[in-house]
Structures are given as structure tokens and as C-alpha cells.
Design brief:
191 residues, alpha+beta, SHC Adaptor Protein, 2 domains, 5-stranded mixed beta sheet, 4-stranded mixed beta sheet, 3 helices, cytoplasm, Ribosome hibernation promoting factor, ribosomal small subunit binding, translation regulation
Length: 191
Amino acid sequence: MRYQISGKQIDIGEALQNHVKSELNEVLQKYSQRPTDANIVFSRSAHEYVCETTIHLSSGLNAAAKAHATEIYAAFEACAEKMDKQLRRYKRRLKDHHRERSEPVELFGASSYILASQEQTDETEPDSLQPIIVAETEMHIPALSVGEAVMQMELAGAPVLVFRNEGKKELNVVYRRDDGNIGWIDPRNLD
């Protein structure tokens, strides 16, 4: 398993890195069979330390947790506890409700763009209807069942997930609605 432990504008010592690796290994060995890599980022927010952890599993799922505390070790411990709870819940859900996946999730490439927001007043017209692209990155679209897509979205803490439906081989979207429920967009060809 690969670890990437870093700090934003703070120095991460060797002792903290060793602590993070040993604690995350314990959590991951309990609930996931094949984690591929973990990304742990420490930062400061006013007087608190912030720990953000993302774990990529070979099944294609990503688990993310974030915690704040006044001490850096306490921030990590709170984050690890959240990760433990998430992985325990979703492992139980996978065992109870989903078939065993014999192969890893298939991923398809796509481009992701970040568009600049334009503060427009009602009186001014934009020069062009073309948006300004701030950044472009390469993204992966997983081939999942709808249930797996909902779990992936919840594990990652994302408000929306685009995926390729395994049953129909079409692009679908799941998203969290304002009322707390999950929405599913399933386009159909109406030829």
C-alpha cells in the first residue's frame, strides 16, 4: 500500500508519519482486503489542525474522511475513527446486499473542466457565451451498479457521481437531493 502524507504550510515529522501508517493499517486490515493507496493531508485552520484522508480501494471505491482538532494527533485520531466507521458500515452493506465482485471496477477516461465564475450585473452583457476554462484534469468514470454508485458517492462525501451503469452500459448520475434523498438520472434512448 502506498501512503502520501503531506502538510499544507506545516511540517510533518517522521513520528507522525509512522503513527499515521500504523493506525491506518489497523483500520484497513479490519475492513478492506486490497487498499491501493492513501492520501493524508494535514493543514491549519485558525487555531485547529485539519486532517483529510482519502483511501482508494482496488474495488474502485474511494473512502474520504475529514476531522478538526486543536492537536495534530487528535485530528488524525478523529479522522481515523470516521474512516473506521465508514468502512465498517459499507463492508456490512456490501456483504448483505451486493454480489461479490470478481474483478476490479472498470474505469473509463473523461475530461473534467473548472469554469470561471463571472460576476455579471443585469446591465452588462458578456463578451462571449463561451465560458473561461480555469483548469482541465483527467477523470475516471467507473462502471458500477446503481447501489455501488450510491455507496461510492457516500464514501467519497461527494454531492454527485457520474458512472457507467453496468447493466445498460450507459452513463448515469446519482446525486444527493436537497431533501436528503438520493436522486438517480437514467437517460433512455427514445428513438
